[in-house]
Amino acid sequence: MTHEAVTVTETTDVSVAIDLMVGKRIRSLPAVSASGSSAWSAAAT
């Protein structure tokens, strides 16, 4: 069974991200930019 990806934006408050991770029992949470690309790679360019 495949689950939908859980992501946040680069402007998501850290406490919201933590609540999401705890609530969904996940250990990593990718941050994506408005265009849908990785916020990490967008920041590097």
What report would you give on this structure?
- The chain has 45 residues and is mainly α.
- The protein has one domain (8-44).
- The protein is built from 2 helices and 2 strands, in the order βαβα.
- A two-stranded parallel ribbon has the order 1-2.
- Helix 1 (14-24) links the parallel strand 1 and strand 2 (31-32).
Care to give the gist of this entry?
By secondary structure, the chain is mainly alpha-helical.
Number of helices: 2
Point out poorly predicted stretches: none
Mean pLDDT score: 84
The domain count comes to 1
Strand order of the largest sheet: 1-2
Beta fraction of the residues? Answer: 5-15%
The helix/strand class is mainly alpha
List keywords for this structure.
mainly alpha, 45 residues, two-stranded parallel ribbon
Question: What's the topology here?
Answer:
Layout (H helix, E strand, L loop, with lengths): L7 E2 L4 H11 L6 E2 L6 H6 L1
Parallel strand pairs: 1-2
